[in-house]
Every structure is written in C-alpha cells, then in structure tokens.
Automatic annotation (TrEMBL):
Annotated Gene3D superfamilies: Aspartate Aminotransferase, domain 1, Type I PLP-dependent aspartate aminotransferase-like (Major domain)
Keyword DNA-binding: no
EC class of the enzyme, as a word: transferase
Annotated EC: 2.6.1.9
Cofactor(s) the protein requires to work: pyridoxal 5'-phosphate
Descriptive protein name: Histidinol-phosphate aminotransferase
Keyword terms, alphabetized: Amino-acid biosynthesis, Aminotransferase, Histidine biosynthesis, Pyridoxal phosphate, Transferase
Annotated positions of the N6-(pyridoxal phosphate)lysine modification: 210
Length: 352
C-alpha cells in the first residue's frame, strides 16, 4: 500500500499466475505450458527477424498474421485481431464491450482472470454455478446482463461445451457480446469460429501459448465480425499501437503456417492426457473428462494440499486453487510421455 496509489489501484485484486521457479529444476506441470516446444520453423523465423530491422517499429496492424489466420477460418483479415497474449486481448474485449450496465456473467469455477478484469474496468459480475459434476447448464446464461464470457474447454476443469450449447447462449443473448475463450480448443473441443458469420455478438479468443507452445512469445487472437474487431482496435490504439513486436509477428506467422508440427504435437498431448487420466483413475483419483492439456483430479483418501506438498518434495509442481469448490482438486498439466509417467510414479508412491 502506498499513499500514491489511486483508489482504483488500491481496490485491485491482481491475478496470481502459476509459479515459475528459478532456484531449482522442477518438473513443471503447473502452468499448462506445452512440453513439446515451438515449431522449429517458428524458431527459425524468429532468428531470421533478429537483426538491424529491430530498430524499426513493427507492423501495427499485424497484417500478414491476420491474413493467414483469416484464411484458415474462411474469414477476412477484418475479422481478426492480434494482441500481446490472449490475456491482453481479453482485457481489451472486457473494456470494449462489457460497459453497458448490469453484470458480466461467467461460471463460478473458471479462469480467475475474468473477475480481475471486471475490477480493473469497474464492471459488476455475477457467477453462474456449474453443476455438481462441474458441467455447465447453458440455459442459466440469460440476460439482462452486460456480457458473457465462457472458457471452452473450461479452465481449470477441462470440460468442453459443444457448439449447440454455445449457439444457444448466443441466441438467448443477442444484445450483448458473448466471449468464447478457446485457449485450449485445439486439444479436443470444437471452435465456435464457424458461428461468426451468423452471430454479430460472438467474439472467439485464441492463444499461441498452449497448442502452439509459444507462451514466452505472447501472442493472442480475437475472431469476430468486423464491427467487434474495430472496437478492439479502438481500444488497442488508445493504449499501445504496437502490441506485437517483430519477433512475435515473425514467430507467430511461421507457427501458424507449420500445420504438421501443430497437429503432431497436439495429438501427442491428447494421447498423453488420456493415458495419464487412466493412470490416475487406476490409483483411485477422480479425474474430470478433459478436452484440454491438463487434468483436474482429486483423491478420496488424501487431501489435495498434502499431495501438492508431497509432489513438490519430489520436484514436481502442479497447481492448486484456494477456491471453495475445487479446494480438494489439483490441476495437472500434460507433459511429455516420460513426464506423465514420472507424475504417475510419484502419486503412486505418495499414496502408498
Ligand atoms: C492460458 C490461458 C489464457 C491466456 O493465455 P495467454 O498466454 O495470455 O495468451 C487465456 N484464457 C485461459 C482460459 C487460459 O488458460
């Protein structure tokens, strides 16, 4: 606390990201990073962009990247926004679209950045409770409200919604923007991008951090009808005209174009996820059905916090959220096949 802080800054409750320890080597299964590394072509493109050209500002509209992304979804560049990580894109979207009065709706168990943005922009929010099994009854999303944000698949549960459910939310709330945060969609859910032409209130958010293994590069996207993208551009150009540097633009474009790397690595993650889920269930864990690159798991015999501490002693980090409904659950990111096996060996030993 400082006497120089504005009342707004005093009231903020910042998001707390997962730990990035520097003191000793941990097996990091705590922040949903992709263990397979970025596309070699992306790394090559980043190296090639490192030179005297860095004295020049980057393309403020990220034209090449947006064109490549649009092409993949059968959209136009005017349907695509690019920002410095999808967290920034989400923040701009809350700022641009959720100020119309009333509360922003999102699930009681979901990405904890959403309430943080609401505080930052002075927006009220209302939690929509997930069912006992953490599934989502989308009929509970109906106005009046200021807007809706749904993570699909949800985080930290990993549970996906199908497109019919997303479309039902869009139809029931035609007068507010519905943000679908698809950070994990490439690991087994279906993107709502195909619904964009028919729904002027849909904004789909993607990130390069998870399925393209570029969390360190900070690139995120929004897809929506041009009037929504223009709103985001107005916010961006009132904040930072150059959110993506030259290295990020070069790396993201090459990663986007390397379809083979993307497909082989995400399929590997899905296979390792399913094997790790079976392994954990065989040890007596309850594991939620995940379409993401992580599992949410709970054991009837040992408290989550005890398992968390015991894993840490063995050099393995997983994520625990101090939040009522998931206090006895751990979120475990999917590592390589070897790393998943190491996690299973450690939990087996802890339970013994
Ligand atoms: C990881 C994550 C993001 C943000 O990723 P960036 O690294 O900022 O692109 C957004 N939403 C959810 C649900 C996430 O888990």
């Amino acid at each position: 606390m400082s006497r120089f802080w504005s009342p707004l800054v005093q009231s903020l409750v910042p998001y707390v990201p997962g730990e990035q320890p520097k003191d000793r080597p941990f097996l990091k299964l705590n922040t949903n990073e992709n263990p397979h590394g970025p596309s070699p072509r992306a790394l090559e493109a980043i190296r090639a962009a490192t030179g005297d050209g860095l004295r020049l500002y980057p393309d403020p509209v990220a034209g090449d990247l947006r064109a490549a992304v649009a092409d993949r979804f059968g959209l136009t560049p005017a349907h695509v926004f690019a920002g410095n990580g999808s967290d920034e894109v989400l923040a701009h979207a809350f700022n641009a679209f959720f100020g119309g009065g009333g509360a922003v709706l999102f699930a009681d168990v979901t990405y904890s950045f959403y309430p943080t943005y609401c505080r930052l922009y002075g927006l009220a929010h209302r939690l929509i409770p997930l069912s006992e099994d953490f599934s989502c009854d989308v009929t509970m999303y109906r106005g009046p409200c200021a807007g809706i944000v749904i993570a699909n698949p949800n985080a930290p549960t990993g549970i996906p919604l199908n497109l019919m459910a997303i479309e039902a939310v869009l139809r029931a709330n035609p007068d507010v923007v519905v943000i679908v945060d698809e950070a994990y969609v490439d690991f087994g859910a279906e993107t709502a991008a195909s619904l964009i032409p028919a729904h002027d209130n849909l904004l789909v958010i993607h990130t390069f951090s998870k399925s393209r293994s570029l969390a360190g590069l900070r690139v995120g996207l929004a897809l929506g009808q041009p009037h929504l993208i223009e709103g985001l551009v107005r916010v961006k150009d009132s904040f930072n005209s150059y959110p993506l540097g030259r290295l990020a633009l070069a790396g993201a474009l090459a990663a986007w174009q390397d379809r083979d790397w993307f497909d082989s690595t995400r399929k590997q993650v899905m296979a390792d996820r399913d094997a790790m889920a079976s392994g954990l269930r065989a040890q007596g864990f309850e594991v939620l059905p995940s379409a993401a690159n992580f599992l949410l798991a709970s054991h009837h015999r040992l408290r989550a916090e005890a398992i968390l501490a015991a894993l840490r002693e063995r050099g393995i980090l997983v994520r625990h959220f101090r939040q009522d409904r998931i206090r006895n659950w751990l979120r475990i990111s999917v590592g390589t096949t070897t790393e998943c096996a190491a996690l299973l060996a450690a939990t087996a030993e802890i339970l013994r």
